[in-house]
Design a protein that fits this description.
By secondary structure, this protein is α+β, with helices and mostly antiparallel strands. Helix content is 23%, strand content 33%. The relative contact order is 0.12.
Amino acid sequence: MSGLDSAGATAKLQATLPATWERPITVSIDGQDQQVPSADLGQTVDYNGMVSSAFKEAARHHRVHIRLSRSIDGKKLRAEVTKLGKPFYKAPRNSRVVLGVTRIKRIHGRTGRGINSSKLRQKVINELRHPTPTRIVHARVGRIEPAVTLKTLARRYSTYLSVDRDHFKLRLFKRLRLVKTYPIAVGMAGLETPRGIRHVLEKQVNPAWHVPNSPWAGSLAGQTIPASDPADPLKARWLGLGDGIGIHGTSEDWSIGSRASHGCIRMHVSDVIDLYPRVPVGTPVLIH
């Protein structure tokens, strides 16, 4: 660039370098080609900066070596790669379940499709930094698996209970499938077992009865009746659901299949002993 001023040197660089460094890149996605200007991919070549550096070296009587000065705007590059991949994208659909009383409805997920944006972005960066004669980068459309599958949900809902108040049934589900049904008693009129989703908050073997301060408790209100006392109605096992409501065994087997409790869910002693180890703390319980 001997004999050139700053403007002339800049013009000469701008006439020489773009053929190598600023050629458009052809992005080929599954055989569909699209030419993209390097500027759209975030690349900027700093011609003025290169010339300025060269003149500073010359002023110090150093040997002038013009170094390529350019930058790649990562945000702009990501946006362009996203734009390129958008026509090929189909979102995956996660699996889901609907927790019911008699069954769990399983809704299968769906795979999606799209390009691997991270890989394509890196290929573009490599091409910008090290131009090839063909100036082409390739990408393929691949499967995108849903983040939530039925296997995921089977682990999440490894145990689930439903309480069918109308038919006096408690159902035990394992990994989204019904495995056992037990007969039960539920709350009597005026003291109904409350509807809704609850969770097993605590478990006890041979629980004591902490009598609620309620009118129906009479002279026992506020007392604690030990498990050894025949007056304790909570037999063998207790699975607490909060607010004084729980699942427990009963000595009044005749009440099973009726509305007889003060809000709890009664079971035969043999049944609650069978259920107890199958149900971990945290298990969701749908009361309907």
